[in-house]
Amino acid sequence: MSAFFRNRLFSACLLCLLIGAGHGQDKKALLVVGVTNEVKDERWQDRRIGFGLTNLIAESFFDSGQFILLEEKEEIRAQLKEVREKLWMLSEEAVQLQQAAKTATLAGAEMMAYGRVVSFKTPTTRVSMGPFHSREKVTEIKVEVILRDLKTAKSYSGEGKGKAKTTTTSVVFEYREDRDEVNFDKTTVGEATKQAVAEAVKKVLKEYGRE
User: Fold this and answer.
1) What are the tens digits of pLDDT across the range 161-192?
2) 174 lies in which domain range?
3) In the 8-state DSSP scheme, what is residue 150?
4) Structural contact between residues 141 and 111, judged by C-beta atoms closer than 8 angstroms
5) Which of 110, 122, 128, 195 is the most exposed place for a label (fewest CB within 10 A)?
6) Is-above-0.90 flag for pTM?
């Protein structure tokens, strides 16, 4: 093989790699529209938990570097708030998701995402260390995240589980005074929820990346 041909072949391969890399860096506009709640525990009924979970999911997608998160403009913010509240209370879920898709499209999104709290458990076990005994509470939560292409209607989903332990009695959630949402950094269930969301989004991205 001549040096000239080798150089041409090398240049062509390099060009293909650059084109492929550029294509992989294309980021689609994403809007996280809310979370549905299947947990019947009354401590999970507060809509601020749903708002906080929506933000957690959005942060996880943003941290992946694969999407552009749309800024919620004033004209659609009220629509989204109503959709998110109704989704959290499982009020006409199919209707609300349809409305959410319309709102996301209107906002300029190419993809929309939403979550689902599948289960929440707090089994208690007895822990003994010599003469000392205590009760250890384990918080377990399961979350599903769905990513949907608004143009093709194709969906990608992933389920995540989170677990955290404590030997103290604590409230389920603490709420932010400055914002209308929950603080996931302060309680055991908050830590478990963050783990579950992170795992679910990771699985979604893995499935999405196979396309």
Assistant:
1) 999 876 555 556 677 666 666 777 667 888 89
2) 27-208
3) T
4) no
5) 128
6) no
